[in-house]
Predict the 3D structure of the following.
Amino acid sequence: MKTVFTGTTSSNNNFSLPYTVTATVGGAGSSTTNQNSNIWYGPVRTVASNNVISYSVNIKVPARTGSLMAYPKGTYTGTVQLFWDMQASSSTVCEGDSGGGWDSGNTTITANYVVPSLCQIDSTSNVDFGNINDIGKTTRDYTAQGVVNTTCNNGLPYSIYLGDGNNRIAGGFRQMTNGGGQYIQYQLYQNSNYSAVWDTTGGVSAVGGSGGVSKTGSGNSQGTNVYGKIPQGTTISTAPGNYSDAIVVTVTY
């Protein structure tokens, strides 16, 4: 038996999946073999009283090594042509596709691989304002940056939303707390000029809400900066200690 195949699926947005083929010819002395395209494997001796001989062919997309790659969503198709040569009641070896008079057949197997829509949060980092060396009110702006790392299908639109935290003033500033009833107001923004608040305005159930940051997946990990600010003149607690808040990150696609 021989198999003929390309080793790569059909293309989807200029991306293809690699695949491998293994096969087993039923009969005495048969074994499972990693196939090379257009190479004859065998012969083996078969005994089939019911005129049925089993062949096993497996088409596999191997696991990717290294960094995650999110391929474009859609269907990828791989095909394998099977050819076989059988000699009934003959002690001679199979001729393969050379010579004439050989008993042969062929068929084609099609394998479809469906890549669904995929988005995941790889990691996040803290927005750390450091030490605030003021008493009563801030004498300057305190700013800090964090990052949200995501991986989404190449070409897939998605939006990242940030929750209100645990102590947000309705429609206003978020607040960090020391856990003892003391607070420091701050805000998270979509851009480095601190003009667009980053939250869940418009809801998180759809892509493109005004409160979120909308992007298009590249198939690889993408980092999106989070800009934090405590404005000059903010009233702050006089109680020393560590102040923090927890923000829920939602990715919609």
Q: What stands out?
A: The two ends are 46 Å apart (CA to CA). DSSP finds no helices and 15 strands in the chain. The chain has two domains: 3-115, 119-252. Residues 3-115 form one domain.
